[in-house]
Amino acid sequence: MESGGNVSHRIARISAHLNPPIHSQEGTSVLMRENCRAKGGLPGFKVAILGAAGGIGQPLAMLMKMNPLVSVLHLYDVVNTPGVTSDISHMDTGAVVRGFLGKEQLEEALTGMDLVIIPAGVPRKPGMTRDDLFNINAGIVKTLCEGISKCCPKAIVNVISNPVNSTVPIAAEVFKKAGIYDPRRLLGVTMLDVVRANTFVAEVLGLDPREVNVPVVGGHAGVTILPLLSQVKPPCSFTAEETEYLTSRIQNGGTEVVEAKAGAGSATLSMAYAAVKFADACLRGLRGDAGVVECAFVSSQVTELPFFATRVRLGRKGVEEIFPLGPLNEYERAGLEKAKKELAGSIEKGVAFARK
């Protein structure tokens, strides 16, 4: 029969990953939470989700817990993190889960992370534009990026919080001010536009969406979302009516979900799926896999704008190559001009906010 000390030690180890370790005075109970596996029991990457208790954050956390490339998963939010952490931690996958609650634990949540994913903020509601989200979400992203600057300045940062066209420039300005800005490591997540494009095009063509690849460039709101249907793989052609239908539906996919949920939320599940798909690509790049190419909103010289979404190759340092737009047809060239005009204002709005 095992001694009481050994049993107590095992209990401490089992519970250790649920919360940050509590550093107590000498002589306290052996049942205090230890670091044990919270340092990472398996090879892999350390990932933090900021806004993990929200509508996107919860399914995102669940899916990241399932990713074999993740060894440590930190869940941070200002409310409800303990419950989400406890729930997710019961999944029998290799990643160790630890929860962090409130601003006072932000720095601990970020220390040592390889990848930080930011879905924090308020969701869009019926009748609300992405600009309506700006005043709230801009401040949240700024605060979180200040924490990243201090605690994990070399981490790859995936920004999901809307409006991405403005929040990515805000993050860049915060990092510049802190002296740690590396444009290769800051990426706005536009993967949901690609996921929708693949799905909607597959419906029209009668194909499996997993066999379809549609480049989506520009930004991540309305007319700034520009699917390049002339570059779809497998190669195909569309009528003018099909092109107009598909482009409009891809651009307004978020509104479609918001209206369908009738005030009960926005695109949370599909966004979580897209975010995990993109995060996995970033982790595979960090691992050194070759040929990892996805679309993302990044610092760019593809156009005259300082930020633009195009296909990028991901590697150990984040973005290692930015691909040009390629040949555009007349419809896409007209769409590009509309996208750039709208995008320029959103970028400037973010920069101005960060510099206040």
From TrEMBL:
Q: Name one GO molecular function term.
A: L-malate dehydrogenase (NAD+) activity
Q: What is this protein called?
A: Malate dehydrogenase
Q: Where is the active site?
A: H220 (proton acceptor)
GO cellular component terms? chloroplast; peroxisome
UniProt record similarity statement: Belongs to the LDH/MDH superfamily. MDH type 1 family.
Does the keyword field hold NAD?
Answer: yes
Q: GO biological process: any one?
A: malate metabolic process
The record places domain Lactate/malate dehydrogenase C-terminal at 190-353
Record: residues binding substrate: R124, R130, N162, R196
Top EC group: oxidoreductase
Source organism per UniProt: Oldenlandia corymbosa var. corymbosa
Its annotated compartments are: Peroxisome
Q: Which residues are NAD(+)-binding? A: G51, A52, A53, G54, G55, I56, G57, D77, N137, I160, S161, N162, M271
